[in-house]
Amino acid sequence: MTKTESFEVDVNPKVLEWAIKTSGWEKNELVLALTISENTINGWLSGDIKPTIKQLELLSNKTKRPLAAFFLPKPPEEAPLPKDYRMLPNKLDKFERKTLLAIRKARYLQEIGSELSLNINKKTDSEITPAKIEQNPEEIALFYRKKFNLSIEKQTKEFTDAYKLYNYLRDIFEDYNIFSFQISMPLKDARGFVLTDKRPMLIVVNSGDNIEPRIFTLLHEFGHVLLGKSSISIPDFNTDNKVERWCNKFAAAFLMPSKLAKSIFSENKTVLTETKTLNYLSRKYKVSKAMLLYNMLELDFIKRLYYQEILDRHPKIKKEVKKQSIGIPQERKCLSDLGNKFVSLVADNLEKNLITYSDALTFLSIKSRNLDKVIRKAKK
After folding, report:
1. CB neighbourhood size of 161 (10 A)
2. Shared domain check, 274 and 240
3. Does 76 map to a domain?
């Protein structure tokens, strides 16, 4: 055993408990991951045993906390987790480690975005008009379609693929000071979340989803923004939760207003749920097949039993997970993950010497050779 491994350090057991609890690790999992005994980790948490510096470094790596955090005199105060609207059995407020890390990353980016905005006198408040749960979600959706200048012609023809519609909506949200990030999380755990308790408000969409479900999630989470509550969602079309149903109806009506949907479904009534029809409508309107079936159910074109039968028969419709992309240039990935607004804020602060070159690389999580490319693309 080396001196480094045997060197014990004084840490507050409460800080250790905080780091483990907020990381999503269970004690029995950490015992295996750190190759220690259960008595050892219990001793750490009781204060009877001091960890070595090597053990603390390993714990820092596993919990994704900086080593310095373990030397704090007491656990830091952190913003609460978003309200859990996932409706997962036995998992209320219990998230997988990668989801917790995504929330922490979003909080960090939100804080950085606020500081960078204040540095150059950019406002962080949004001018979006709040909505109430008592209001009709379709009326609110139609209002925002008009406000965002999204015509059916533009949706079906001008936007030649779903990525163009997604980026169009994302750019509009950013114009209203609602930041939009894409972060990978386990799809079974969460498809998106919103943070509205601080400014700028932000929407996070799961980057592991296919693009059509991501569009729906983006709008579903925007519904939560309108209702003014930080939240985390799947979202689930079968939910009975009042808030989730409102956000589902808002997103579905935004993407395919009921008048349009009724007309389309009536025209295709005899082949409505056939794979060819679902694929065609999904491509044309840039919506997921799951959302199409949800609209058919809500508008009484299919019955619930048949709706469930289709989902059970075609489980891929539920998931619609995107194909893995290989070899995406780092500048494209950076813009895809963080959006033009955040990247432009970093660039503006760097140009005004308000942050260092090293700060910019850290905030954008890129290498120095890619920085100029990212900034040029963000300013196009």
Report:
1. 10
2. no
3. no
DSSP state for residue 71 in the 8-state scheme: G
Q: How many structural domains comprise the chain?
A: 4
Q: Are residues 120 and 233 in the same domain?
A: yes
Say how many C-beta atoms besides its own lie within 10 A of residue 271's C-beta.
Answer: 12
| Residues 124 and 177: beta-carbon distance below 8 Å | yes
35 CB-near residues (< 8 Å, 6+ apart)? none
**How high is the pLDDT of residue 152?**
96
Element (H, E) at 190: none
Give per-residue pLDDT as tens, 67-106: 999 999 999 999 999 999 998 888 999 999 999 999 999 9
Query: Range of 238's domain?
Result: 81-255
pTM above 0.85, yes or no: yes
184 and 214 inside one domain: yes
Q: Is 146 buried (19+), middle (13-18) or exposed (0-12) by CB count in 10 A?
A: exposed
Q: Are 253 and 141 in contact (CB under 8 A)?
A: yes
Name which of 82-91, 278-287, 320-329 the model is least confident about: 320-329
DSSP symbols for 30-44: HHHHTT--HHHHHHH
Band of the pLDDT at 201, cuts 50, 70, 90? very high
Burial class (CB in 10 A: 0-12, 13-18, 19+), 82: buried
Domain boundary among 233, 255, 277: 255
| Structural element, H or E, at residue 370 | helix 368-378
When pLDDT is cut at 50, 70 and 90, the band that residue 1 belongs to is very low
Torsion, Cα 152 158 162 164, to 10 degrees, reads: -120
Contact, 255 vs 219, CB < 8 A? yes
326, pLDDT greater than 60: no
The DSSP H or E segment spanning 192 is strand 192-195
What pLDDT is stored for residue 377 in this prediction? 84
Residues 98 and 193 in one domain: yes
Q: Which helix (H) or strand (E) holds 15?
A: helix 13-21
Domain termination residue (choose one: 278, 300, 320): 320
- Output the domain CATH number for residue 22: 1.10.260.40
